Amino acid sequence: MLCYLSAFLVISLNVQKSYSSNIEYDGSVTIRLQHALVASEDPVFTDRGNVTVHSLRLGQATINQRPLSPDEQLQLRVRVCDKIQRQNFSIGSI
Predict the structure, then answer these.
(1) How far from 60 is each of 16, 25, 48, CA to CA, in Å?
(2) Which residues form the signal peptide (predicted)?
(3) Residues with Cβ < 8 Å from 19, sequence gap 6 or more?
(4) Which of 14, 35, 40, 85 has the most crowded Cβ, counting Cβ within 10 A?
(5) What percent of the chain clears pLDDT 70, i.e. is strictly above it?
């Protein structure tokens, strides 16, 4: 069975600088992206990359993202295939 890789990643956005008190601020803000491939009570988050907003007013931003490792790709593939098989089984048993 061919599985297409489509999954939701749990993404934790940690804003390293907060300027909520000054709405007119137009400096640089960096947001760190993390993901957890296994949903649990205490998920283990892995650094995924970051988004640096250079200018809020102009909408200038840079995205740096590392690719998924072969092990992470396999974890996603297995989870997606398992979910598809469970859905097909429940549909077939109706």
Answers:
(1) 18, 14, 20
(2) 1-20
(3) 25, 27, 29
(4) 35
(5) 66
- Indicate if the alpha-carbon torsion angle 84, 72, 43, 31 is positive or negative: negative
Q: pLDDT at residue 51 above 50? A: yes
Q: Which residue has the higher pLDDT, 62 or 7?
A: 62
| Residues whose CB is less than 8 angstroms from the CB of residue 54 and which lie 6 or more positions away in sequence, other chains included | 28, 60, 61, 62
Which element (helix H / strand E) includes 4?
Answer: none
User: Where exactly are the structural domains of the chain?
Assistant: 10-92
Q: What phi, psi does 65 have (nearest 5°)?
A: -140, 130
Burial of 52 (0-12, 13-18, 19+ CB in 10 A): middle
Identify which of 53, 52, 56 has the alpha carbon closest to the alpha carbon of residue 25: 56
